[in-house]
Amino acid sequence: MEALAKKERVEPALNILKGGLTPEKLVLVRATTGDMSTSKGITYSSPIRPTIHFSLNHMVEPHTMGSWESADKVTIIPMKDCELYNMFGGSPVDTFFVGYMRLPKSGETVRRESGEGDGHFRERVNKRIEELGYKVMPGGMWSWADSWTASEELEKLWIKLGKSSGAHTNTVFGAADETVQFYLKKPEKLDAEADYNLVSTFLDPATKRQFDAVGPFESYGDISITMRRKLRGAEYQAKELLSSFSEKLKGSKSLDEFIGKVSVNELDAYQKLYVYLLERESRKSREGFEKRYKDETKGIKEKIGELEGRMEGLEKEELARYKAYEEESMKRLKAELGLWEGRREETLNATTGWHHAMGEWMAYWRKEVEKNGKGSASS
To answer: Are residues 195 and 319 in the same domain?
Structure first.
């Protein structure tokens, strides 16, 4: 009975996929506790995680990766009114922007009333989405009702818009988040010998230029003794700064309290680490995709060549008989090839298009920390 009820609820909702997805059909929904960091109509992601997350056409539902039952504010923003240049993309249940987003005037907020339960609050949010003219979609862990068809249709829209598809955990940002948290918990794991390229990001600018000018290195042994000493010094300083950053983060009850405690040097160390990890994951992602792209498209192109040869070899009377079938096969193959070309562009955008937005994010939080006069770890 439960499966039947879910089917009756889900299938009509998925009618939204007919004719394809467009920004006009979609609304961004963000559930939060407290207000977001906003300046001059621009909302910034937190200084810890440089992404701002939304669900599409529904208030995010609890699942094994998280719960939003304590959320007291939901922001609803029509996608058609958004500036999308720093939107990464994502999935139907987790679409995100990098660094910040400009809030359009058409965005609005639904706040939880005093004593209001989660169920009633959620109903009010979804009712407001309907009142704005949008179809309310069922949630899920990976997609609307965990429908792969919905994810595939959203991917087609992202390709048209130059965005990337997939769950945040499977993106370069998800990978960077996981690794940066590891180093925050265990800064002692930073090791110049084990990962000299990572540690080099903490060198002072002049020494970093020297390091890059004589690299890349095959091994730690290829690095001069003088440069190794400088790397060890940078390693020691980075461990101190990241350890202090982590302790202040754990000891703060709010973002405002943390920003009031942390120093510019500690923030710089964290941001350098995050950006380095993001660049490393981006390179790995591009290299991995290029290999897959070549393998997949090689097979498709071979099939197209074989089909063209068969079509040329047919007698005229036979061609008429097989024409519709062969043309349909050719259409499918070319569409599949086009999808891979789109995915290639999508991967390039996902692994290179974040630099400007990350720079804006870094500058904003540095300025916020500087307001408190925190110029160094000891200040």
So the answer is: yes
